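[Q] Does anyone have a clean structure-token version of this?
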Amino acid sequence: MKIKQIHSLFLECNSVCTDTRKIKKDDIFFALKGDNFDGNAYAEQAIKKGAKYVVIDEAEYKTSVNTILVNDVLETLQKLASFHRKFLNVPIIALTGSNGKTTTKELINAVLSQKYKTTATRGNLNNHIGVPLTLLSMNSNTEIGIVEMGANHQKEIEFLCKIATPNYGYITNFGKAHLEGFGGVEGVIKGKSEMYDYLITSNETIFVNHQDPIQVKKTNKAKRFVFGNKTHADVIVEFIDAQPFVVCKYNNLKIKSQLIGDYNFNNIAAAITIGNYFNVEDSAIKTAVENYTPTNNRSQIIEKDTNKIILDAYNANPTSMHAALINFEKYTGFKIAILGDMFELGKDAKQEHQEITDLAISLNIDTVILVGENFYKSGSNSKIVIQYKTFLDFKNEFNFTQIKNATLLIKGSRGMALERVLEII
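[A] Here you go.
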């Protein structure tokens, strides 16, 4: 069956589903495969649960006229998403970067939805499956699509751009993330810049942070819309303060966000800039930014008993960890940093964990708790450092009742799940 025919059937359905536990009536189910599962085996169950159509790639599971047999389910999902994107022909804004992708995406969506009907990536579904699902969640009501793209290897962003064919793009930054897969910092820059390559070749618009020399250099020959605090930028957003929340100035408006850390200033500035480009009123931009509250363990401030907790445990890499610690030092009172291992650093893991350990010791922080195998190996003779090889060791051995009237920073890679600290403080 051709993609055009499958698309016609897709339009009869309510939504796309890849998990039979979440199927709703009249969904279309794609039987994807993973390391430990084969979606084909759930095809019949999907029909019984209310799926209107099921897409499979193993003939033995074709048990119904509503079952569509294809050569490869994942490839079909991606081709269908690309076809649907062209069918709708709505403006697509794509964004990637080492840090701040999801927060920036949420801010952009908050700003643009003040004027437009938007569809944006849910959560961080930003890979070779998530991007197609985002595109397929768009419909005739969508006026602007916002697509987050993640990658940990070369050519992934290029591939995602070919599926989404964005009209606009923004790269938050180039940092020390996924060094193992990209092959070092230069590999990160090359991999993320695949978005620039696509947009420049297609003569599409790139949003550029003038304060980032890499962005400026990489887009020198591009059609671009620039923001910064320079007078020759297209949009000027000025940083005012970040104690504890970021405050900035835009077109004589003082905007008070609910995001901590000066590292979030560029994320806010990008959303303001894109709102300006799409003619969202200044007052609406201010409302959107001021009303946005972070969720899902990202830069959240939580009051618990006598303690203030900065929960930034969704993910971590050396760049974001460095920024979080520098910002944390600015807080007053008794400060405790609870840091978890940073993943996907490959041969650089030892050095990067040691550098973060040394940084934490050098700052005005009262206690530094390091959790994870890599941090456990870091060398430290400092009395303020406590090291645990596993989270279980930390949970069992540390006296949490001693934490009173303190400000805590909790940050680590997703696999460390340091938000569990909240359950035991």
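[Q] Thanks! Anything notable?
[A] The chain has a mean pLDDT of 94.
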